[in-house]
Design brief:
This protein has 399 residues and is α/β, with parallel strands linked by helices. Helix content is 39%, strand content 14%. The chain has an eight-stranded mixed sheet, with helices on both faces. The protein has a three-stranded antiparallel sheet with strand order 10-13-12.
Length: 399
């Protein structure tokens, strides 16, 4: 067996199952799951229609690179959404459809890492655990950046020593952040780009929450947008990851894409011809319909606005909660994240995620997720309101 497998820590949801083992929630209360970022809004009809109308595509092997129409739809969406210079993003050489960004993030690290150079992968903390696992299985060492209040819960790039940047092969960024909802500015992203140029590493920007935001006049910036604004329209060292799971509420479609530096994408495509499974044709046509439409995305955002508007006044009676800039998470402080999570499940039949499960201890020994819980507002509006009311009762009773 690959000895690196022994370095992997249990996945957060496995740890959660172990934490809740043996707990007996009240039988009279329905379960409300708020621990996982799995959107449960109805799938857009236009996506379902495109999927079912193209089932004949199941009769042929799909190309790893995807059909030209899908790559064009993605390139056009990126250009519109992030105001990129027309023609700067080649659909042929700078876009690659993938079966969900989880798979793509993992595979990308395996393709890009040179294990002979003592590689480091620099990543935020808290973080999406795929970053860490991908690094370890590629023979790299994870380096966790601390979050800094000055940067509104984004990692402090200036806290990373120069010798770490010198060994860095991939910098993971996640904006909007999972779990804080913080959004990186153009200036922040350009600072990361200057570091990448100076120390010769690739930036992997996880932008899967980019379409769940609440100020229509101020959508979150993206890495390609920051590069273009700095005059780097060939997007050197820039690779972005996007998904329809959150944007279009179709996590089961397993549809996303990777885009950016043509040289890097060429090597990644070569890797995927051996490793990655190609996206089935029906899913590709459904994805085209989704990337070409914004009306359902606005409707999706409006549903999340309704949830925050309904939930925050209830929770603010008993805990410090703030509206995030983006994403569908709340990240409040509690006394003890594991104890809070288990007791809430036992008494109110609500499942949250302990913050310490998606973070790692700093060199000083403190876990930046400890004493926090992640609340995912993915259920229906009535369910979210019911959950908030139960949490309020639970905290008021001092349990």
């Amino acid at each position: 067996m690959n000895p690196a497998l022994n370095k992997l820590q249990p996945y957060p949801f496995e740890r959660l199952r172990a934490l809740l083992a043996g707990a007996q929630p009240p039988a009279g209360l329905s379960h409300i799951a708020m621990y996982i970022g799995e959107p449960r809004h109805p799938a857009p009809p236009l996506v379902v229609e495109a999927l079912t109308a193209n089932m004949t595509g199941l009769g042929s092997y799909p190309a790893t690179a995807g059909i030209p129409q899908l790559r064009e739809a993605i390139a056009n969406w990126l250009t519109r959404r992030f105001k990129l210079p027309n023609g700067s993003l080649s659909a042929e050489s700078m876009v690659l459809p993938v079966n969900g960004t989880r798979e793509a993030l993992f595979a990308f690290v395996q393709a890009v890492t040179d294990p002979g150079r003592r590689p480091l992968m620099v990543m935020p903390n808290p973080f999406y655990q795929i970053y860490e696992g991908a690094a370890l299985l590629a023979g790299a060492e994870p380096y966790f950046m601390r979050n800094d209040a000055q940067h509104e819960a984004l990692p402090d790039l200036d806290s990373v020593p120069a010798e770490v940047w010198d060994r860095c092969q991939i910098l993971f960024l996640c904006s909007p952040s999972n779990p804080t909802g913080a959004v990186a500015s153009i200036e922040y992203l350009q600072h990361a780009l200057r570091l990448a140029e100076r120390h010769d590493f690739v930036i992997a920007s996880d932008e899967c929450y980019s379409e769940i935001y609440f100020d229509e006049a101020k959508p979150p910036a993206g890495l390609l947008q920051a590069a273009a604004a700095a005059g780097h329209t060939s997007y050197e060292r820039c690779v972005v990851f996007h998904s329809l799971s959150k944007r279009s509420s179709v996590p089961g479609l397993r549809s996303g894409f990777v885009a950016g530096d043509a040289k890097v994408l060429k090597s990644f495509l070569l890797y995927r011809t051996y490793h990655g499974s190609a996206m089935p044709p029906p899913a590709q046509f459904a994805s085209i319909a989704a990337w070409n439409d914004e009306a359902h995305v606005l409707e999706n955002r409006n549903l999340y606005r309704q949830k925050f508007a309904a939930v925050l006044p209830i929770l603010r009676e008993v805990m410090p909660v703030e509206m995030p800039e983006a994403s569908f998470y709340l990240w409040p402080q509690v006394d003890n994240d594991e104890r809070f999570t288990r007791a809430l499940f036992e008494q109110q039949h609500i499942t949250l995620l302990p913050g310490s499960y998606i973070a790692r201890p700093t060199p000083e020994g403190s876990n930046p997720g400890r004493g926090r819980v992640r609340i995912s507002l993915v259920a229906t509006v009535p369910e979210c309101v019911e959950a908030a009311s139960r949490i309020r009762e639970f905290v008021k009773n001092g349990r």
